[in-house]
Amino acid sequence: MLPIIANLLQVQERDTRLLNLQRDLKDIPTLQTRARSQLSDDQAAHDAAHAAVRDVEVKMKNLDIDIQTRQNTIKRLKDQQFETRKNDEFQALANEVKRYEKDVHDLEDKQLDLMEALETTKAAEKVSREKLAITQGHVNEELKQLDERSANIKERITEVKAERASMVAPIDPDGLALYERLSKNKMGTAIVVAENGVCGGCHMKLVISTLASLKGDKSITHCEQCGRILYFA
Ligand SMILES: [Zn+2]
User: Residue 76 C-alpha to ligand 1 middle, in angstroms?
Assistant: First the structure.
């Protein structure tokens, strides 16, 4: 094997690693988005449960106001009743008071129903909050791991780039330029093995003259089909 090919194979091995590392790094934002999206269902469920509690609380507050208003009216009617001397007017006011007292009684029944509803919705809200917290914990852990993975990949990229730089330094610039051009066109496989008379890149049968040139080991030999640099294993 030509020394330059042996050197370029080492470079190619680093380039393959770099490509894989860079692809892994590029995947990370997608994985982060996917991790965060796990929260959306639980968050929506918790928001709905919280809204249900708020709804009952608002209804209770309105009911309190309704009851208070009627109690004020009852007090006013009773005052009027106390002041009147007319019997029929007294009776009419008494009927009014009775009617308002029945109203208050009905509203107090509703109040009991709402208190029960408040208990139920608060229990559901607690369940949804706990579920959300558990999911948040998982998601945080996943995001932390992704951050670590990202840092790790970046570190390895720096290392491999440094290795590559020291490997290319002694290589003839024309040979390196040839390799880099091919590598770019052939998705990172510029140099391939020739095995059983077949190119390891395009898998086509190599012609006799190509195999002869390869055996001669005097200069760089290319596959006549795909143009990749060939070597014997
Ligand atoms: Zn080929």
Answer: 103
Beta bridge partners of 229: 191, 222
- CATH 1.10.287.1490 region(s) of the chain? 16-170
| Per-residue three-class SS string for 128-141 | HHHHHHHHHHHHHH
State pLDDT tens for residues 181-199.
999 999 999 999 999 999 9
Expressed in angstroms and rounded, the spacing between residue 185 Cα and the centre of ligand 1 is: 13
Q: CA–CA separation, 163 vs 154, rounded Å?
A: 14
From CA 184, how far away is CA 144, in angstroms rounded? 34
What CA–CA distance (Å, rounded) separates 28 from 31? Answer: 5
CA of 194 to the centre of ligand 1 (A): 9
**Which CATH number is correct for 16-170, 1.10.287.1490, 3.50.50.60, 3.20.20.140, 1.10.10.10?**
1.10.287.1490
This prediction has a pTM of 0.73
Question: How does DSSP assign 103-131, residue by residue?
Answer: HHHHHHHHHHHHHHHHHHHHHHHHHHHHH
